[in-house]
User: Which sequence fits this backbone?
């Protein structure tokens, strides 16, 4: 069975930047700008900061937001960059079987608050928000926008959705169901989700501080990250391969709806599966982009597992630059991980001040050079899902 | 690719819960008075204490999951290598709106964490995993009418890769007043009876239910209903160009939507053998899971169950006794299609 899949395109839009290179560059400079949401207001005081994508990051060729959820708009921006990167024309791509697999949370939720407020007051709300929802299932919308004729799947595995989408797309390619596959995640900031995380008391009123001693929780973010994966037989001679998907693993805690297993049972199983598929050992990993949400439980469990399974291997959380982008996180973080491998340096884990001395492993707080060819992007999710991908930098295989 | 066996079924709908209830309804011995799920049978598997904080959507899933595992002879066994794939068209709508109720009634700062956590689309899969001890890979999908074919396609991949020994696949959608309102606004006053073969006129009645199945490549013992021979999804084209088994009968996902019905007529050539069963389970995005289940039962018995008689004017033939060893289940969506092919064992 084919194990290692070439990655021929990358795309990213997030609060750190409108594309892959600018996002990585701003992270390497240590820039971050969490602030109260501009797109909606809430009663929370103090206001909870978020990582919002500036409107001018979105390109002009998108369907209007009146017709299309912002989640799908974000997905289209990242998908367009990934497709451009592969060096094929759209006409060429449309002759191939190109699958689209996108993870999301908000992009699949029928939760328009104003519509529902009017409905429960006995009014007759207009159907615009429902029309928009029905037209905006992310994978189908991206496939339609670019006229891509492969399989489509929209995954809703909460915060591991983007990572799982990459794993699912890899399964398609191995099974011969498509020639290329766009895979990743997309999510928008949403008042309903914002209130939800606030209700769980895991949203911080300060900029997120993954693995810090007095971490107060996460900041929500938005964006999209996409990889264009290919079947090895479809990659043309001379085509630039930006990296390789070496392994994917996932497993479930079956422990608690909102808390990770205290010993990281599912995460350990997922790591074992990914390492086996990648045919590599922990010591082959150059660095790990951890889930690192800045919530007390997540960071405690993740630190424990990383300390035991990847002792001495540097790790970071990139959520300090992007916020927690939920269904998009796995896509954005896989893109940033691979871009870091290819750039030869990894942005520092920002916000870990002072570090939590009780954690058995702590992230790298300075930008550092990459020594090795493989890296992990890891996602832990609501509901106990644990997923990770093992990526190899371009040109090494 | 590998064609796993369907070794357990767990249908839950207005007709009742379990294979026996569905068979009775198909045989015409009982007819659902409404497309609403009665969750009382869940108490046979889980006590109320275990489910008291679990929303209705997830409880439908738990009931379907327990029934399917029991039917496959896997209840109480080691489920550590049983993957879980859960598909839904819309997700847990009632819970989503209950959360919005808490925001609108009590304010942003007093929103309900319980409703929020249950409203997350993979909460049902998480509840099933926690209650039944499923620790293998778990995936939730949500893509309207394509959700079922997409989930079954993934199940085949997982089994082909030997990531798991078995897949518990489930599909759930629930009704709620907002869906009823949307139907009224889009289609006018609801009719009383869903008529699958009335393709040009809106007769859809919203339904709800859950439909689960166990898929295995190497079942150690017990019976199997059919093989999952094919599962394909496309997001943009009007319908599949070829199924590879054109002479096989079709179970069509016609569920009374006038916007979709004529496309079935345009796709399938005259003389095709067809059946449609939405009259038993109602109009819901994951209705194709019921079609697959009914087709599997038909393949096991050598004949598709009778359905509403075909009216004059349709150039198709009613499917009945199976001359073919295969059945195609086709669901058309607003854009795209999902095709599931079954083969007799």
Assistant:
């Amino acid at each position: 069975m084919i194990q290692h899949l070439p990655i021929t395109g990358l795309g990213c839009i997030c609060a750190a930047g409108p594309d892959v290179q600018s996002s990585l560059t701003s992270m390497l400079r240590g820039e971050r700008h969490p602030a109260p949401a501009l797109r909606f207001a809430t009663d929370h005081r103090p206001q909870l900061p978020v990582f919002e994508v500036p409107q001018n990051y979105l390109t002009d060729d998108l369907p209007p937001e009146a017709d299309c959820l912002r989640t799908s708009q974000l997905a289209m921006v990242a998908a367009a960059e990934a497709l451009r990167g592969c060096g094929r024309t759209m006409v060429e791509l449309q002759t191939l079987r190109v699958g689209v697999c996108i993870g999301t949370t908000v992009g699949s939720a029928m939760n328009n608050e104003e519509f529902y407020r009017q409905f429960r007051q006995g009014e007759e709300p207009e159907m615009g928000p429902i029309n928009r929802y029905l037209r905006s299932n992310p994978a189908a919308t991206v496939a339609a926008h670019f006229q891509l004729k492969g399989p489509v799947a929209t995954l809703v595995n909460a915060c591991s959705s983007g990572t799982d989408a990459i794993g699912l797309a890899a399964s398609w390619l191995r099974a011969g169901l498509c020639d290329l596959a766009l895979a990743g995640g997309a999510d928008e900031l949403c008042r309903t989700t914002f209130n939800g995380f606030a209700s769980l008391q895991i949203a911080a009123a300060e900029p997120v501080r993954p693995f810090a001693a007095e971490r107060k929780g996460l900041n929500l973010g938005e964006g999209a990250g996409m990889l264009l994966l290919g079947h090895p037989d479809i990659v043309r001679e001379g085509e630039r391969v930006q990296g390789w998907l070496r392994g994917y693993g996932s497993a479930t805690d079956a422990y608690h709806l909102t808390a990770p297993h205290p010993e990281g049972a599912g995460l350990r199983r997922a790591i074992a599966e990914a390492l086996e598929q990648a045919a590599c050992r922990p010591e082959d990993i150059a660095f790990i982009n951890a889930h690192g949400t800045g919530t007390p439980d997540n960071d405690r469990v993740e630190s424990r597992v990383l300390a035991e399974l990847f002792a001495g291997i540097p790790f970071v959380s990139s959520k300090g630059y992007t916020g927690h982008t939920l269904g998009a996180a796995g896509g954005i973080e896989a893109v940033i991980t691979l871009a870091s491998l290819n750039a030869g340096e990894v942005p520092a884990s920002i916000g870990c001040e002072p570090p939590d001395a009780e954690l058995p492993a702590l992230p790298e707080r300075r930008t550092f050079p990459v020594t090795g060819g493989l890296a992990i992007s890891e996602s832990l999710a609501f509901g106990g899902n644990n997923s990770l991908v093992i990526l190899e930098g371009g040109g090494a295989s | 690719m590998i064609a796993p066996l369907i070794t357990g079924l767990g249908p839950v709908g207005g007709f009742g819960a379990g294979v026996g209830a569905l068979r009775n309804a198909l045989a015409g011995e009982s007819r659902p008075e409404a497309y609403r799920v009665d969750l009382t049978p869940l108490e046979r598997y889980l006590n109320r204490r275990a489910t008291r904080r679990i929303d209705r959507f997830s409880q439908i899933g738990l009931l379907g999951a327990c029934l399917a595992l029991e039917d496959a002879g896997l209840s109480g066994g080691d489920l550590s290598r049983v993957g879980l794939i859960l598909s839904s068209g819309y997700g847990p709508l009632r819970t989503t709106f209950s959360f919005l109720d808490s925001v609108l009634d009590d304010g942003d700062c007093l929103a309900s964490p319980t409703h929020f956590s249950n409203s997350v689309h993979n909460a049902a899969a998480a509840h099933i995993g926690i209650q039944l001890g499923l620790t293998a890979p778990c995936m939730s999908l949500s893509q309207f009418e394509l959700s079922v074919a997409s989930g079954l396609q993934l199940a085949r991949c997982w089994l082909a890769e030997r990531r798991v020994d078995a897949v518990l696949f489930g599909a759930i959608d629930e009704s709620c007043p907002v869906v009823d309102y949307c139907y009224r606004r889009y289609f006018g006053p609801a009719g009383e009876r869903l008529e699958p073969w009335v393709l040009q006129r809106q007769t859809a009645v919203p339904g709800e239910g859950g439909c689960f199945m166990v898929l295995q490549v190497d079942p150690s013992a017990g019976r199997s209903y059919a093989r999952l021979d094919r599962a394909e999804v496309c997001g943009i084209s009007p319908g599949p160009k070829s199924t590879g088994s054109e002479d096989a009968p079709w179970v069509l996902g016609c569920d009374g939507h006038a916007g979709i019905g004529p496309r079935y007529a345009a796709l399938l050539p005259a003389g095709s053998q067809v059946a449609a069963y939405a009259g038993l389970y109602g109009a819901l995005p994951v209705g194709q899971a019921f079609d697959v289940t009914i087709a599997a039962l038909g393949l096991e018995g050598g004949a598709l169950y009778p359905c509403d008689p075909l009216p004059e004017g349709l150039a198709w033939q009613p499917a009945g006794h199976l001359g073919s060893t295969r059945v195609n289940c086709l669901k058309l969506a607003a854009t795209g299609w999902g095709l599931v092919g079954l083969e007799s064992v």
